[in-house]
Specification:
heterodimer, A: 239 residues, mainly alpha, Cytochrome Bc1 Complex, Chain D, domain 2, three-stranded mixed sheet, two-stranded antiparallel sheet, 5 strands, B: 106 residues, Immunoglobulin-like, five-stranded mixed sheet, 52% strand, elongated
């Protein structure tokens, strides 16, 4: 018991203050993110601007019809950093009456990158008692700390316990979600949080939660809450 | 997806070096990968990029399969007279793209 406590204390002491995955990235990757002319995710943002004006649904409404310019949504991504795609699809299906966009399609990623960019620099502020996500943060935290897969690792084992250490050539980040959707050099493309979680889960040889499952929704809610206070960086660049 | 983002300073002083930055959206398929059925995905990379400024050639680049998807190119030129920076590129699929940005020299 005392050994376990001592171990826990060591883990706590070694855990650095909450910081963005940006701080764990190499200077070259940071430079890519810092320069909008070099950040490849800006290609998707440019597409997002086109889509913003594209009418959809029976009343042929575009995003602009209701929201005006994209910067009217400043702060939206800071409140929903992990579930932006879901929110955009709610807006599409409930207000525009248009079919939902595939969550990992180019169109959705482009819109999410555009909306996310509007909150750049704002601190993430996920409300724990958000009506739509009652109890989800707690459920997500339980999943975050649950061991899974053939490697029998939990998310927390690496992203809390070993954050700052190395996995292959890259530093292990703390699992903060202030930069999604993000351009990963590994993917050579833009990807959302769903893709990141799926990558991690297959990495520990677990079967990834389906995209529309309650488990995935809870995990995303918790990851958003866990990021509270960090400034938004969307669209980020990561190794 | 946007095909290109071209960044040049709108204004420059005569004799000053200007930075021409371009991000091209392209898969840069190497021709080494196989798809789900085991068939080789045909090579499709940007082969050739040409940059002119005020009609004069600044640089002509020949790209190779080792260059990443969505390549970022950073070119420097000396500001002479006001003129257009024109970028033209060609890929293996025969797609020709071009983008123009004006630079005013003061």
């Amino acid at each position: 018991m005392t050994r376990r406590l001592a171990l826990a204390a060591c883990v706590l002491l070694s855990a650095a203050a909450p910081h963005s995955g940006y701080d764990d990235a190499s200077p070259a990757v940071q430079a890519m993110q810092d320069d909008d002319g070099a950040n490849p995710a800006m290609l998707w943002v440019a597409t997002g601007r086109t889509l913003w004006d594209q009418p959809a649904g029976p009343a042929a409404q575009s995003c602009r019809t209701c929201h005006g310019p994209p910067d009217s949504l400043r702060g939206a991504a800071a409140r929903h950093p992990a579930t932006l795609e879901t929110r955009i699809n709610w807006s599409r299906t409930m207000h525009q009456g248009a079919p939902a966009l595939p969550e990992e399609g180019e169109a959705m990623l482009s819109l999410a990158a555009l909306v996310g960019l509007q909150s750049r620099g704002l601190p993430v502020a996920v409300a724990r008692d958000d009506v739509m996500e009652a109890g989800a943060v707690e459920a997500g935290e339980a999943l975050f700390t649950a061991r899974m897969g053939q490697l029998n690792l939990s998310c927390a084992d690496c992203h809390d316990g070993l954050a700052g250490g190395r996995l292959g050539g890259a530093r292990i980040p703390q699992g903060r979600v202030n930069a999604y959707p993000e351009y990963r050099l590994e993917w050579q493309g833009l990807g959302g949080l769903l893709r990141r979680i799926r990558n991690c889960m297959t990495g520990v040889r677990a079967e990834p939660f389906p995209a529309a499952s309650p488990e995935m929704a809870s995990l995303r809610a918790y990851l958003g809450w866990r990021t509270n206070g960090l400034p938004m960086e969307t669209p980020g660049v990561r190794p | 997806m946007a095909r290109i983002l071209l960044n040049v300073p709108k204004q420059a002083r005569r004799g000053e070096a200007i930075e021409i930055k371009l991000l091209l959206s392209h898969p840069m398929e190497t021709g080494q990968r196989r798809d789900e059925t085991g068939a080789i995905v045909p090579r499709n990379i940007i082969r050739d990029v040409t940059c002119t400024y005020g009609g004069a050639l600044v640089v002509r680049l020949e790209l190779f399969p080792a260059i990443s998807a969505n390549p970022f190119l950073h070119i420097a030129a000396r500001a002479g007279a006001s003129g257009d920076v024109v970028l033209t590129w060609t890929d293996d699929a025969g797609l020709v793209g071009t983008e123009t940005a004006a630079v005013e020299v003061v």
